[in-house]
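Q: I'm writing up a methods section and want to include an example of the input and output format. Could you take the sequence below and give the corresponding predicted structure tokens, formatted cleanly so I can copy it straight into the document?
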Amino acid sequence: MVGYVYDPIFTEHGSDEHIENRFRVEAIDQVAQNFPLRRYDRARASKEELSTIHEKHYVEWVEKAYEEGYRFILNEDTLLTPKSFEVASYAAGSTKPIVDAFARGEIQRAFLNIRPPGHHAERRTGQGFCIFNNIAFMARYAQKRGFAKVMIIDFDVHHGNGTQDIFYSDDTVCYFSTHERNNYPYFTGSIEEIGEGRGEGYNINRPYGEYCSDEELLALYEDLPKWFDFDIVLVSAGYDLMRDEAISTAQITFGGLRHLVRKILDFAGDTPVAFLLEGGYNLTSLTQSVEITLQELCDV
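A: Here is the clean output for your methods example:
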């Protein structure tokens, strides 16, 4: 059985005119109806829990920002609307029921249809459509529930600068990212960024050039760290690497994506694995991409 999280609360942040909007998760949920998924209820992250990955003053600022007249975080691409703090708290917190289900042995695979996305949110600030870092929150909660070593794989076309920032000095979390070089956030994600202190060697970036093909992308996944003795695999599933997306030049096909998902599942082996929604803005491409992911997760 494959676990699944979605709730209408995730539609209550942002603007319909923004590229990262409610239609994304609504369309995915329609696709999910066609699969035998075990649905889990939403859960909210407390401010104290969010402060395990973000600085306390940032969490408290987000809570009050809209009432104090702020309408975006850092740049105008990351909106603040009346319910943004609540929705973002549920996006991060709704990773907890899946981890709990993994710990109980109820499921071994999961897909989390949540928004706003998270991998650009750093310890001190959100950015790039992201308010709180959902996958970082899930990693810390997983460790609390006994999954000591966490593997994070990020195939979004953009570098997950926030996830890198949070775990850069941590040897209990290994971060592996493939992303388009010279795309947002522009100044992070080089191959030389390998972590520091205890975390040196546990941050692995594999950037690619413009017009990346299936073959080029899949070859980078030969560098997945087989030496890292992980207890759980978490995936930042950003579907903006697909060739029909408008905010990159990557030319990944649906067949290439299927091979990528299979490669990740093979790497995970018998350990729990969860895919968390990040990017993907062309609804036709997004829904077909998630359908492929769910087919592989359900092995149908």
